[in-house]
Amino acid sequence: MSNSPNSVTRAQDLVVVFLRWTWARAVLHNGWWLVTSVYLVVDAQLTAAQLVFVGTAQGITALVCEIPAGVLADTLSRKWSLVVSHVLMGTAMMATGLVTEFWAVVGTQMLWGLSWTFASGADVAWVTDELARPEKISGVLVRSGRAQLTGAAAGLIGFGVLASFLDRGTAMVLAGAAMLLLGLYVVFRFREERFVPAPVRRWSASWSILKRGSALVRHNRAILLVFAATFLVNGASDAFARLHPQRLFDIGFPPEPLILFTALGIAALLVGALALRMVETRMNDVRAAQRGYAVACVAGAVGLVALAVAPEDVSGSAAVLLVAGVALPLTRTIGTIWVNQQSTDDVRATVHSFLAQAEYAGEIVCGAAVALLAGAAGLPYALVGCGALFAVTTLLIRQLGTSRTDSDRPA
């Protein structure tokens, strides 16, 4: 890529647009989820098993639709795939705030799962290809991870305050409406100048893209190991996200805990931003990234077991910080960077969709197992089971040290 002043300015503007959008989406998504996590327990009065089942149903929807959505993004447009995501996501967010009956919640969350399939991979593929600077993209993705955390902190504060003045359902509906409006930012500010849509015979082109993406994944051992790790970690983390509010209620959180949840969420985000800052300059070093991922998994395992046995809410909150502030942001960001480094431009969104499919498969399989464990043995044992998934991942990720990387790519 040329290093002329115009090209440098264009690259800077593109990164700024991407980071602002990432930040704003995190504000709305995380602020909405803060209110929703309390809404599902207090207003909808879902049980622990029902909470995990909601995530499993959401994951099934996403698993089925993820690959077709990724292929369409590689075939037609990454930008307009993001626009579709905003329309569906905003609608699902508003609808969840209007219902409390269990099966209605399941339906709105399945729509929410569908919405993410149009965004997962398309966002990273868009910024990677439009920036066209491979040596810079890892740094941009880490900055994006930090933008998500700071945006999430702003969302927790803003929607925590909003929900204290309004009822929770109304706050959720307003967040959904704002998510719809954010889609207009993508329409007018996301340029798509380097992406070339597939030829007129798009179904044939889509099939070719799917085959090339599948071949790249099948022949790259590093990607396959990251997929396996993602399957386990995301299954554990999704169950944790749905179960830890109930656990904190059980060990001492008050019945109207929104302020406490807001403070806890902000603390976790600050810890996560610090953790990402510490690893930012080392993400191109495979060994350092591997160590970071392993440390994050150990933190997740310890935190989940500590939450399961915590006698009161202070120690339980500290355990939540370890999981949500260290384990989750590090594993998510490092996994995305690894897969992005191993992808090629023509199938990048499709390969990231395979990664997202591993996430959703983890939600379904591991989430169903955790739900059964929660129903049969109780919530603490379910959290210990989630910790065991992180522990197994620690052993699995050590195999990356013997995996090939660039040489694995198909010719």
TrEMBL record:
Source species of the chain: Streptomyces scopuliridis RB72
PANTHER family (UniProt xref): PERMEASE, MAJOR FACILITATOR SUPERFAMILY-RELATED, TRANSPORT PROTEIN-RELATED
Signal sequence bounds: none
Entries under SUPFAM superfamilies matching the protein: MFS general substrate transporter
GO MF annotations, alphabetized: transmembrane transporter activity
Classification of source organism: Bacteria, Bacillati, Actinomycetota, Actinomycetes, Kitasatosporales
Ranges that cross the membrane: 82-104, 172-188, 222-243, 258-279, 291-310, 379-397
Annotated protein name in UniProt: MFS transporter
Key words, A-Z: Membrane, Transmembrane, Transmembrane helix
